[in-house]
Amino acid sequence: MLIANNISKSFAGVQALSSVHLSLQPGMVHAIIGENGAGKSTLMKILSGVIHNYEGQIVLNEKPVQFNSTRDAEAAGIAMIHQELNLVPQLSIAENIFLGREITDSFGMLADKTMHERSVELLARVGLGVDPATKVETLKVGQQQLVEIAKALHTKASIIIMDEPTSALSDTEIATLFTCIHELTAAGATIVYISHKLQELYTIANTYVVLRDGVTVARGDMKDIAEADLIAQMSGRNTKNEKINTTKKFDTVLLEVDDLYLKHATLPNKNLLSSISFKVYQGEILGIYGLMGAGRTELMECLFGLHPKRSSGSIVVAGKKLNITSPTAAIAAGMALVPEDRKTEGLLLDNTVRSNMSLTVLDTLEKLGLYIDTKSEKELSKKFISELSIKTASDTTLAKNLSGGNQQKIVLAKWLATHPTLLLLDEPTRGIDVNAKAEIYALIKSLAVKGLSVVLVSSEIPEIMAVSDRVLVMANGKLTANMPISEANESLLLMKAL
Ligand SMILES: Nc1ncnc2c1ncn2[C@@H]1O[C@H](COP(=O)(O)OP(=O)(O)OP(=O)(O)O)[C@@H](O)[C@H]1O
Ligand SMILES: [Mg+2]
Predict the structure, then answer these.
(1) Where does 253-497 sit in CATH, by number?
(2) Residue owning the nearest CA to atom 7 of ligand 1
(3) What b/e string do you get for 283-303 counting C-beta neighbours within 10 Å, with b at 16 or more?
């Protein structure tokens, strides 16, 4: 259906792709695999017309093609679901789905009713039960991801590229997406699928291509390669996931939350969180598991002082009862929050890697309050680039030019720089490759050994099991379990989350 030959692309000094070859067949799901910064998204942006100056040739149904815009690619039947969500927050779901391809009636007027009805259909297909008139800015990341998918389905493309479509989806939503994919391939469409969740690839993909530093290093059928070999191909080395088992004793309570409530923003009788009470000890890693919508993000936001008007209850940090009414107060109390949605809450995309990292510690870097101590700022960014193995041309590269996973690492670095006593992590490894995940887990653990307390929100049970000392489970805004990790297992956590 499509052949890409000898595709090369470089960005000012960075060779993102060198002579990559790809061929896509109808009815198949093709997985593109590789570490953060390997070149996956770049290749997909070339196929979908986002990037148009590259070397090499694309042949679609035996005809050479050159796309100068996403519009061109769409007209040729290629649609892409972007890793960094591309919706317009101020517009409604329906307006986003039809943006640039609005349906008009015979008088040239917008056919709002038709678009609304069509949106309802599309949303049903992706399993999102929300009114299409809802503004996108009020949606959580996972819901936005579903809207992106609905939007791609609307284009009736024969090649659909999905760049980490499930990174913010819950297991049930993933199942719905897979049903959708099966329907599409059965009808002859081709899916190109990028994901760091290898298990997912074994479920959905027929073939794989592994990219490493912009070069194709392996390809074949998914059924013929073992997971360990796939990981070895990605990294070019053999890594073993060692399980660090520590039996730690905790005696000092750092955070004590008592009877926390959060009211719904508009419905007066509804609570988003009800009677939440728990403790976090110094040096402890507390995992919080729950399905999307369980209230995990809201809990982190309350602790961080983001909902002072709607929340009640007591929060005691290091023996002091706090009146946390703003993030500034939370930071002063030693907290740091790595938010779920890095694009809007975590990163200044037009700023450099270095200035993003130092943003949270500007006051300590200021000499006499006059200018920033550039030397310390450089040292800070150098340290984090190496500790988190961030792939960037330099520390003056703009954040927007980094790959998705490497952007996530910057958000993490920025908050680690504040030397918090309590680190709140909301889905910190979304979009991060398997080896980098293991590095981040090791880093979190080593910080905890030094006395840092960590609250880790995750929808991946293996992640919770790998790092936590204790786990809480949430469902419908309430705590449904609180147990040491030694007593937890996958099915128990899942059961408590339902
Ligand atoms: N617009 C750009 N300007 C400069 N460099 C870029 C740009 N886009 C990508 N790069 C660089 O190209 C390389 C490949 O990036 P790409 O986004 O394709 O990686 P990826 O495989 O999708 O990684 P991830 O899993 O983290 O999403 C990276 O080194 C990245 O920093
Ligand atoms: Mg990417």
Answers:
(1) 3.40.50.300
(2) 401
(3) bbbbbbbbbbbbbbbbbbbbb
